[in-house]
């Protein structure tokens, strides 16, 4: 799993659950930050959404689920 793969999974889940457009959700998601496994052994990625309060809440809720499914990703 790479950062691009993770974004694809985020987009698919957000579109399925909340509708809207792929372009809008992609804009809301921004970039996935990938950290070193040495300093972040339990989850080496983060995402900081930049949308409305409702969009950000949807992304954060999904991120919690994604972290449990995909805690470690590659670059």
Count of alpha and pi helical runs: 3
Shape: elongated
**Which structural class best describes the helix and strand composition?**
mainly alpha
Separation of termini?
Answer: 8 Å
| Counted beta strands | 2
Strand order of the largest sheet: 1-2
* Sheet with the most strands, sense and barrel status: 2 strands, antiparallel
Quote the average pLDDT. 96
Strand content: 5-15%
Q: Roughly what percent helix? A: 40-55%
- Return the string of H and E elements: HHEEH
Radius of gyration from the alpha-carbon trace, in angstroms = 12 Å
Flag low-confidence runs.
none
What does this 3D model show about the protein?
By secondary structure, this protein is mainly α. The chain has a domain of 49 residues. Strands 1-2 form a two-stranded antiparallel sheet. Helix 1 packs across helix 2 and helix 1 crosses helix 3. The longest helix has 17 residues. The radius of gyration is 12 Å and the shape is elongated. The mean pLDDT is 96.
Based on the model shown, name its key terms.
75 residues; mainly alpha; two-stranded antiparallel ribbon; 3 helices
Topology of this protein?
Layout: H1 3-18, H2 22-29, E1 32-34, E2 45-47, H3 53-69
Antiparallel strand pairs: 1-2
Helix pairs in contact: 1-2, 1-3
In short:
This protein has a domain at 3-51. Helix content is 55%, strand content 8%. It has helices spanning 3-18, 22-29, 53-69, and strands at residues 32-34, 45-47.
